[in-house]
Amino acid sequence: MLGAYAPMSTTQSLDTLREGAGSAPGQTELLRRVWRDHVRMHVPVLLIAVAFMAIEGAALGAFAWLVRPLFDGLFEDGSFDGVILIGGLIAGLFILRAVASFTQRLIVVSVGLKVTTRLQGLLLRHMLTLDQRFFQDNSPGSLLERVRGDATALQSLATTALMSLGRDSITLISLLVVMLATDWQWTLTALIGIPLLVGPLYLLHRLIRATSLQSRAAAARLSTRLDEIFHGMQTIKLNGLEKSEDARFESELKGYLRPSLRAQAGQAANPATMDLLAAAGFIAVLWFGGQQIVSGEKTIGQFMSFFTALGLMFEPLRRLSNVAGQVQASLASVERIYAAFDTKPTVVETAEPKPMPSGDIRFDDVVFGYEDAPVLRGLSFVAEAGRTTALVGPSGAGKTTVLALLSRLVDADSGVISIGGTSVRDIEIDALRAGIAVVSQESALFDETIAANIRMGRLDATDEEVRDAARNASVLEFADRMPLGLDTPVGPRGSALSGGQRQRVTIARAMLKSAPILLLDEPTSALDAKSEQLVQEALDKLAEGRTTLVIAHRLSTIRAADKIVVMEAGRVVEEGTHKALIDHDGAYARMHALQGSLG
Q1: Rounded alpha-carbon distances, angstroms, from residue 354 to 23, 221, 360
Q2: What residue spans in the chain does CATH classification 1.20.1560.10 cover?
Q3: Cα 430 to the center of its chain, rounded Å
Q4: Cα–Cα distances in Å, from 207 out to 150, 157, 559?
Q5: Which CATH fold topology does 11-341 show?
Q6: Which of 213, 281, 504, 532 fits as disulfide partner to 527, beta carbons 3.0 to 4.6 Å?
Q7: What percent of the chain has pLDDT over 70?
Q8: Taking 50 as the threshold, does the pLDDT of residue 6 lie above it?
Q9: Cβ distance 271 to 321 under 8 Å?
């Protein structure tokens, strides 16, 4: 399989990069990027939401203010004349507040959903530009968690935070105006403890963000483990690994539970501190204001209006405090998202790319590897146009790396790879890959129909062209026996088909693509004798007239190749035809003799 071209590296692992970073991006920087990239475009509609938030918040301030004439008129003056009017005004305020609340919530939630879906699309689009090494270094579960789990956290940031910051901030301002207008000394008495909470809340928010980062990373490991379990279910059952895998998953669950509980505890501590502050404020105002009422300095209406505003103030204050914790948790996910966005593509196109040429494929002194794991060490050979060149050698010799470099899934560290005298780095990437068809050991099928999987070779192909490719690859031999024929779903990863059937579908896809260059990576290694014969016949048809590079461990399958290139430790040690290499009595002859002795 082309994806398995070299030893695993962690140099591009997103989690490793983030954990090893000297300092995490600041909160201001993250919020600035979210605003610039995803929120700013929605400002006009958000301003409408803010207007309705202002109505919703101001309504509570107006309610608190109307409490004063209600109590003064009813209890002090003994008049009931204004009660009905004030009661009607209060009822109208709450109806207006309900309409404003519904409207602003609908607007903000819709913006949050648009931001999230756009982010998910952009994130996947960016990941599709990254080279194969990135996908080796980051598990599917980790990437899936970023596209789905972390991206939805931005929706929480965009909805909960915006609604609370807009609505609750305006509510607090309107209530504070009522309190100050009633008695500024009572106001200071009630809120004097707020500055004392700044330090503890700052430390608490740092804890929430750190534990949320750990929690999101643990969630990615959970997704990876589940992906491996579900796709390896047959291996698990056949080897009696149910208890072992259950224990491993339980361990991952505990690893997720610990930081998640710490993050939730931190978020729960936010409103708890507000409750303590509220209790202290109520007691202080009750003691101080009660004396002034008894002495006649203040009226009951003033006291009740102030107490109503104070009581209504602490709930939005609690929500804002809780939002601060939620923002920190969301920023942990945003940080992980931008770690992916900040990973730059290493396979890039030149400023003036050239069209796909024809001609010989040439590797000249090509070097590729990792800092601690060299793979190719000055590899040089030529694959002549229209002929079949086989690459053989022991595992780890770098054979599959050759195919990955030719198709620019990765780029070489040095040396030149050319087609018809043009470096592959100078060829338009889409044109290069359109000119290469691949059939690998692991048939890459999607959970679509047989026809849809074949059509992936050329999306604009007609139904007749798809059927012709299926016929030439012997797919119709089994597809026509199925009730739905080529419209039969193949299941996840082609699980509804046998190994030989999956390979024939892949070959049909390559036939439909009709590319001038054909790369075969051990396409028959996992098949039984009958399936191998059918697949080999289809491959022979496919290779006719094409420049073909084939990798095979079973030397019997490449005896007829025009040239055989023997590789060891990333270098070419000999090359020639089967007969010439046998007569030379070198590395190839030894491999041939060993396979012959093993039957």
Answers
A1: 42, 42, 17
A2: 11-341
A3: 24
A4: 19, 18, 65
A5: ABC transporter transmembrane region fold (1.20.1560)
A6: 532
A7: 86
A8: no
A9: yes
Count how many Cα atoms sit within 13 Å of the Cα of residue 302 in the half-sphere of its side chain: 17
**Assigned superfamily of 361-597:** P-loop containing nucleotide triphosphate hydrolases (3.40.50.300)
- Characterize the bridge pairing of strands 388-392 and 414-419: unpaired
- For residue 473, CA distances in Å to 98, 225, 399, 538 come to 66, 36, 26, 5
* Helix/strand/coil for 375: strand
> For the segment 539-586, what is each residue's pLDDT rounded down to a tens digit?
888 888 889 999 887 787 788 889 999 999 899 999 999 999 999 989
Quick check: helix, strand or coil at residue 378? strand
Q: How far is C-alpha 520 from the geometric centre of its chain's CA atoms? A: 31
Does 14 have pLDDT greater than 80?
Answer: no
Handedness of CA 129, 130, 131, 136 (dihedral sign): negative
Residues 6+ apart with CB under 8 A from 42: 111, 114, 115
Strand-pairing partners, residue 367, are 377, 414
For residue 572, what pLDDT is reported?
93
pTM for the full predicted model: 0.73
> According to DSSP H, which parts of 232-367 are helical?
233-238, 242-294, 300-341
3-state secondary structure of 364: strand
d(CA 121, CA 534): 41
User: What pLDDT digit, counting tens, does each position of 391-437 carry?
Assistant: 998 888 888 899 989 999 899 999 999 999 999 999 999 999 999 99
For residue 114, give both structure tokens: 């648009």
Q: Which part of the chain has CATH 3.40.50.300?
A: 361-597
